[in-house]
Amino acid sequence: MFGSLTKTFKKILGSKADRVIKEVMPSVEKIKAVYPQLASLSNDELRQKTTDFKQTINEYIAKEQEEIEQLKAQAEAEESTDQKESIYKQIDDIESSIDNKLEEVLERILPEAFAVVKETARRFAETKAVKVTASEMDKDIAAKRDSVEIEGDQAIWHNQWNASGAEITWDMVHYDVQLIGGITLHKGKIAEMATGEGKTLVATLPVYLNALTGRGVHLVTVNDYLARRDAEWMGPIFEFHGLTVDCIDNHQPNSAERRTAYQADITYGTNNEFGFDYLRDNMSRTPEELVQRKHHYAIIDEVDSVLIDDARTPLIISGPTPKGDKHEFAELKPVVEKLVTAQRRLITTLIADAKKKLTQEVEDSKAQKKLQEDGGMALLRSYRGLPKNKALIKFLSEPGIRSQLQKTENYYMQDQGKEMHLVDEELFFVIDEKNNSIELTEKGIELISGNNTSDDFFVLPDINMELSEIDNSSIDEQEKIAAKDRIIQDYSIKAERIHTVNQLLKAYTLFEKDTEYVVMDNKVKIVDEQTGRIMEGRRYSDGLHQAIESKENVKVEAATQTYATVTLQNYFRMYHKLSGMTGTAETEAGEFWDIYELDVVVIPTNKPIARDDREDLVFKTTREKYNAVIDEIEVLVKQNRPVLVGTTSVEISELLSRMLKMKNIKHNVLNAKLHQKEADIVAEAGKPGNVTIATNMAGRGTDIKLSKEVKDAGGLAIIGTERHESRRVDRQLRGRAGRQGDPGSSQFYVSLEDNLMRLFGSDRIAKLMDRMGHEDGEVIQHSMITKSIERAQKKVEENNFGIRKRLLEYDDVMNSQREVIYRRRKNALFGERLNVDIANMIYDTVGSIVQENTDVRDFENFKFELIRNLSIESPVSEDDYMKMNANELTENINELCVEAYKQKTSLVAKSAYPVIKNVYENEANNYQNIVVPFTDGKKTIQVVSPLEKAYESEGKELNRSFEKNVILAMIDLAWKEHLREMDDLKQSVQGAVYEQKDPLLIYKFEAFELFKQMLDRTNREVVAFLLKGNLPQQEVQAQVKEAPQQQQAQPKLETSRTEIPSFSQGQSSQAQNSGATAPSKPKVEPVRVEKKVGRNDPCPCGSGKKFKQCHGK
Hints:
Distance between the termini: 68 Å
Oligomer: single chain
Largest sheet: 7 strands, parallel
Helix content: 40-55%
Number of strands: 30
Strand order of the largest sheet: 8-9-7-10-18-6-19
Structural class: alpha/beta
């Protein structure tokens, strides 16, 4: 009903895409009107247009730029911190207004700029050599590339050049529909364009226009091959107009070459490298190490792959962690193998029992009903014990069996599953395949605890009850403390043990080799479910990857500690303007809007699509399905048509390959194990009679071109051997045929044993087939069946969206904290707003000390904290302290601290200047930077300062360098530790679901408290060191020495992406069970949601001391 109403409204009002296209058509008409006028311009005049555009843009924002310069000078001279803060806020507001003004002026010049790009493309397509007056940039390019030559004062641009190892001849000019796509991208939307419609060429239009601002345009691709190819393929069109082009994937991280690549007008690169460079920049210690600039505009190629498929995998830079190589996988692996073997034997018996009872017929109706009930129970137990058992899957495809399973499950699931324990009590563990969770049963715990002396080897203690018993006991305090330590340690060990067993169970029962992962080069490598490609460097989270490594008998990699992390979702949301292009975004339009506020616009095709998309063929078993596929391939090969067979896993592609070999049909196989041959295999895929078996990787970045002979034979035939859980992937596969109006066909073969059908789609279809009395080998084909399958896909897509949204909600908490820390780091690196930050730190530290002591009116502790943290005596007497309110006290002490700090910095500058002056005047040629030690009496820090600036500022620059070094060192140390605590917190809160609480809500509360404590602790440490830090008492001359030129040594860092499985694979980081058998992975200290112990409260250890003087130190 709703579908028909929607269609009616579309006919009356038009679709959203139609309305958007209607809005941009006036701009398209303007471009078409300007374009013919450019033909009369000389090549030099055409190039001059770019200079004119830049001048127009600069004039439009000149007033704001001038204001910013004046405000910066004013801020530098301003003494008042409050005034400085106000000025910097004005600067930020003006910067934001400049972004808006740039959009206004770009909109104004858009028609002429797009026409310039199109005219340039036409001249290169129609002329072998384009001659212009040589510029310095032309000469530089000619020295590096053969495609540009210099003859006298002329530069000759040839229309042939090398792109990623292949010689290409430029032969493309923009269609009208490509102009629509270009306008859509410029407006910050997603352009959905069919295969063969020239997305790469479309991007040249908005890239050129936005590069004119000089603020950088990033074109993001899914792999480094496409980044390099597109930069070299499209680059000459931009370079002809004096715009610089580079690709970050051509250069090493943190190198000068990569820094130059980011300074280019147009920068190509992969999504991973853009994200990792952002993280590396926020770990750098000097401004010279930074590579990225402000995130202005990005176009993402294959945007659905990057912002949806890859978005659930956080980018992580990690380093070594203490005892990271310590784990129990090797010790517990035999235990888990024993458990899995016992379960398999049990399931085999249960399936045989179910077959016997469900197929047996007796005359007595009561006895028959009892047989059905018992058989249904055995069947349900089999399904909950090992749902991927092949014998079980085959049995479920028989008439009436799946219906019986559903009926039995519904009976035991009623009343919130209170009777389900009767089903599970015979099993060793229970698998919930839809949620990808595993729960050990009592029987399973008994089995794996059998060889251990303790019955509670795998049972968590009730920590609260046991600690309470110790508190109420009569033993002395020292013994109580020791007993509590033993309980907490026991809890930690057992929690880790149970978590390890859980992950090993998942590795053995839910993750299959050559489906979810492959083993290559003695390493476990994850296969991308969307593309079939190997995802290098990516690992499953939460110890699951280590469990799979243990299962496959390869080296179990050591655990690492997170140093910096960000999700792609939050990285790309930093851009002022974001847009994307792909062939399949419409099905995920809701997610693009909810998360990124990106509209999806379907761009019309240049020629009507002539592909024949047929209704799905549904079989009962996979055997029947694959036989039908092979028969169809035989027929198509005889018709001399090329065939592309799409599979969902390496295993299926190899099975079909074996079947084709038996039929003596020549073919190529393209999967994760053979991805190196991708370009060669795809090049052959469009030839007459060629058969190519490919995992879903054939759907991204491939363009199969057909000869006239093939087109006459009917074009490329697409055969899908299984419906993917995402409609986008199926549409990508279909899109390989029918490019630019070519003929072709697509046909999907589906069986009730397929994963998607088995989990979500087959109940109604199975009943329908049973009622119609379908025999083995018979097939169903109807539009209703196809729609039913698509509804099943929608269910999975909704659940996958839920997982990604949940991940983003967790990362949003981290992101708000990340922004605060990274802003402080940036201010410290550049020094512009450092004085404001330091003043705020002093004020916050004073406020914190005053607040925590005023509440209890503890004057003695107040005096102690002032001396310890601020190195000052209390400016008020005890009587005044008792009378004054907190705000008044804070203001008084803050003024005192600020004044003391000014005197101290002045004294340091005065003491150091004679030495700096002597070094500069006598050895300036030898020294560029100097190292000066500072100490607070306990710790010493070596401060690097530029010699010339230190001399010119009469020692003041030394103080600034000291402040930078201290803040960066303290922040980095605290942030690294905070990330570890946040990782622990994220795991430990998952257990809250078993207490009917929302883990995310608890995570937000606890994360806020952790961050507040971290900031307070960092502020105190920074302020204490700044106020106490001074030059050593010895002769300063002896302490000053030349700073080494090399960068500071860093620990060995790794970049990786932690894989979080999708809905069909489950969430490896989610808590799996409850109670004694299945906690989430807790750490040594469980998360507390009750009231925290105050610093002045009695210490919980029972010592009688205040918490701050005992365990709160």
